[in-house]
Amino acid sequence: MSEREPDERSESVAPAGEEIHIPGSSILPILLAAGITLAIIGITISIILVVIGLAIVIPVTVLWIRSTITDIGGLPPHH
Fold first, then answer.
1. Domain of 52, in residue numbers
2. What percentage of the chain exceeds 90 in pLDDT?
3. pLDDT band at 37 (very low <50, low <70, confident <90, very high)
4. Residue 77 falls inside a structural domain
5. C-alpha distances in Å from residue 65, one per residue of 3, 19, 40
6. Does residue 18 form part of some domain?
7. What does residue 65 show for φ and ψ, rounded to 5 degrees?
8. DSSP assigned state of 75
9. pTM to 2 decimal places
């Protein structure tokens, strides 16, 4: 392949000057990890920890999915 021929990889690269989308900071990953940790530890220690862990995991997961959908909805259509 010569230097002038287009490379397959060059078609998937964003054009020069296009802004890269980076999601904002969030505490949701830390809360999700804490909830999962509590639930796993609760399996060996007490069912109460499992319930508390799941009570954290389920709403945090829903919130994270909603925030991601909202974040993605704000992107231009070609992304």
1. 27-71
2. 51
3. very high
4. no
5. 44, 23, 22
6. no
7. -65, -45
8. S
9. 0.66
